[in-house]
Amino acid sequence: MNRNPYLQKQPANWWVKNPYYRFYMLREGTAIPLFLYSLLLLYGVYALTQGESAFNQWIALLRSPGMIIFQLITFLAAVFHAYTWFELVPKILVLRIGNHRVPDVLIKVSHWGACIFCTVMILVSAIYFL
Amino acid sequence: MTNTITVELSRYLPETDKAPWYEKFEVPYNDDTSVLEVLHYIKDYLDPSLSYRWSCRMAICGSCGFLINGEPMLGCKTFIRDYSDTASIKIEPLPNFPVERDLVVSMDDFVEKLATVKPYLIREEEQPVDEGEYLQTPAQVDKYKQFSQCINCGLCYAACPQFGRNPEFLGPAALSLAFRYNQDSRDQGKKQRMEFLNAEEGVWSCTFVGYCSEVCPKNVDPAAAINQGKLASNIDYGLNLLGLAGKKQ
Amino acid sequence: MKNYQRSNEPVAWSLFGAGGMVLALVTPALVIVTALILPFLPNADPGHSYRVILSFAQNWLGKLILLAVISLHFYHTAHRLYHGLHDLHIHGPDKVMKSIFYGGATLLSLLTAYWLFTL
Lengths: 130, 249, 119
Hints:
By secondary structure, chain A is mainly α. Chain A has helices spanning 19-29, 31-49, 52-63, 65-92, 104-129; strands spanning 96-97, 100-101. In chain A, helix 2 (31-49) runs antiparallel to helix 3 (52-63), helix 2 packs across helix 4 and helix 4 packs antiparallel against helix 5 (104-129). The longest helix of chain A is centred in the middle third of the chain and has 28 residues, at 65-92. Chain A is flat. Chain B is an alpha+beta fold. In chain B, a hairpin with a 2-residue loop joins strand 3 and strand 4.
């Protein structure tokens, strides 16, 4: 036997050429702005503990051009995350009623409905109270 | 006037080559020419030394998996007419597997993994023959039927970047097969298979890229099977913490 | 026959899953609040926003909600970043990497809890 198998090793740039892989990396990449946003929120909590003027400084930071751009990126990341997340939920959440499986589209629509409901509740409360 | 397409073929001769290299051929095609038929043409008329696997030519045996223009596909199910607007078509062996020769990859590890997950009905006690067959309602069949359609072509392993990086990963086909038996109402071997699912090499190497399901020629949807397996494994983990998961078999 | 050990990944995955769901439902609106409403909503009294949010955070339910939302954000993103580094072939000793990401998320969550507790 003249076996001499060639071992194909995965290169570090395995995801660059294939559009499906690029989409996956983009999806995972949403974690970067979302992590940084969590730190921003944490900073807000800290500012809250330091009194009114510290908190108002935090709000002024939110107003700065750099932060506006960052929050735009974060918003897009959050919506993209929600979109990809709701696409995946029906694959994991298999619900059966009697003999029938709940259709994927129904699960997706319910999740989008919940998202819209939460969004409306949060925005209305924020506008009303703040 | 016949159309021709340029085919860029990956070649590898284990006796002489250190690494694969590419060879170009001009191949005529018409409306129903498949990639497999292109390979037959090359072997019959242009270069008889070309090696590749094939059998049924109708997408049921799982033999003719190749990387075609960067995507894992079955040669018999991929048609040149869909590539007529591209300059050339590149045919390479499936990635993530060792290449034996030209387009032939070693499937040893793949087969071993299928065997590992105990892909057969396990009963605590066999039903006596005179009690007849095991009966299943359509709903019971529906729970596992999709995952039983696997033709063992290996495209999902070629597609999976987690398997590509870590060959210890049991992989989409093996895990879907394990899940298929766990979901079968006739089977009583779930505890034995949970041992594989619960491991790092089991469902937990998967990051839900989803490309395996995208390339599967039989719509098995291994990504769904593995991630439903994650849910089952998660529940098993919780039960184990509470001492309710049962002894390791 | 290879010896398969039970993985502890379910702990991380559960937090990742819960965080992902919270993120998907709440974060788009949250970003609109912090990017548009808080900074730009015209309010004669500059201390008004501070007092409203403070009273929310001083309420035990408000504390719980803020802690859950922020903490789950940390666990979700830490899990994705940890696995993302693997995908990019950036290696490190596994225990060290896990400590940095999951340990980091835990520390940040404890910090959030501590600050909320002091309000």
